[in-house]
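3.2 Worked example (two chains)
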Amino acid sequence: MFRISVIASGVAVVALLGATWWMTVGRGSGEAFADCRETAIAGGAGSIGGPFTLVNGQGQTVTDKDVITKPTLIYFGYTFCPDVCPVDAARNAEAMDLLAEMGHDVQGAFISIDPERDTPEVVGEYAGYMHENMIGLTGSPEQVAKASRAYRTLYSKQETDDEFYLMSHSVFTYLVLPEVGFVEFFRRETTPEDMAKRTACFIDNVRAN
């Protein structure tokens, strides 16, 4: 059962991490998804994403090719997260349901940045609780770090000997299409409706071309 207490200092650190890594400057232009994208990314969309090897909820080693077989909303978090992660994952799950109503088959992927506690079974159950079409992924510290670097996320462990430690981490959700790779990211304030609408735009754009 998720804790629902809000830890203001942790949220502030998360916001700072995100702000130092990303800059959103309005709608992009001059590329295939210009009508869908509402953000601009330093280095372009091609600078985000890439190969990874992780472990799913069944204990199977999988790669990005095994996971991203359909439009996927990727989120980096951890199951012990008291506030940010469950809210964001629930938002993503709601967007997935809205997309299903629109006729789009979209899945979620919850990648743990806390492999010390998040075993395959734990993260798999967490993701499945959030949505039946959400995949839980974890791995060795090295595997998780490589996946995080690919998506230019940041995370760090609280300096404490307490087993109930917290993690600071980036809080963006990434839309990845099997046909083209990463295409867009969504901030925390993005509503399920807006996420679904923008995701559908990218999917429809691929189909049209």
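3.2.1 Second chain
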Amino acid sequence: MPVYEYTALDMKGKNATGIVDAESASMARQKLRAMQKFPVSINEVADLSKQTTKQTPSVASVFYRVKQTDIAAMTRQLATLIAAGFPLVSAIDALIPQTASKAFKPILAQIKDAIVEGNSFAGALANYPGTFTALYTNMVRAGESSGTLEIVLEQLADITEKQQALKTRIRSALAYPILMACVGILVLFLLITFIVPNITSIFEDMEQILPLPTIILIDISEFFKTFWWGMLLVLIAIWFGFRSFIKTTSGRQVVDNVKLKLPLFGPIFQKLAVARFARTLGSLLENSVTLLTSLEIVRNIAGNTQIALAIEHAADEVSKGQGLGTSLSASAAFPQLALQMIQVGEQSGELENLLLKIATMYENEVESRVLSVTSLLEPVMILVMGVVLGFVVLSICLPIFEMNQLIM
């Protein structure tokens, strides 16, 4: 059913805005009048129900994307309303006007309509795979089946908020080194391309042999000055080629394999993927989702093809009666400590709790590792910048020193 965004006047003459679902604009006006609101303007909102995870991103999807923070806030509020005794439809209807995201409002309205038409909450969420993950939908389905929807929603809000908080901390730690690197590269490019040629042109009229560092600097400067546009085109081509390469199955596998083997960042990528696997699997098992179904969900959101392949192999072995820890140990993608804790959890019957502990442990390790790596990157970048600038200054000063010696 189409969704319309409206501006109207209430009985007291005050402005009121919101969204309403109706078959047509005229039906929307009639519905508003029945609510004692007098429409001033009505605009149809784009139908986002056709979005899928495999669609090619469009301009609309970039500017009207639902953020995970919006989903987490909605989930937390919905859990509170349901725990307070609100029916599900009434709770969603109460959240629609409070949602700040223009992309999220029509989705919530259409989910409410699907529930009114007789669909389950999980079934309505499944129509929006680009907004609600398989983890979210399956946990809601488990909550509906067990009658503990408000508890499941609270757990989903916790999971989403923890993942977003970890991403935010990692991005904050990396922001300064990345900014320093970008500014440094830009300054060096401008220096070598536009400033150095003006200085070194003085030496062209000199009838003496220039020092080797000066010759190298002049050659580099001339190359950058002449072919900077070609280098820019090459970098753009490499970027788009890389993006196309990682979209293929084989390309993604190669990139993920390389990421896990990087000297400093490999363990970070591995532990981050294992933490996501453990938290998701533990939350699903905690809400009575079967192990095989949980492994299938986790495989799709692992974030690394090597980890996903290990999980897929483990799921096959578990279906044959093998233990999860033993099945995962066949791959080198998982750390030994995580495998041992999983095996202990299976033996003690506390697999869910140990999985959540694994997630917390590796999330903390990732955060501390990122901080330590960034603390090393900063002095290294400063050292590299100092060496390059020292080379430029030395290359310019050497001919001047030689001229002074000749004059003396």
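3.3 Remarks
Confidence is low (pLDDT under 50) at residues 48-63.
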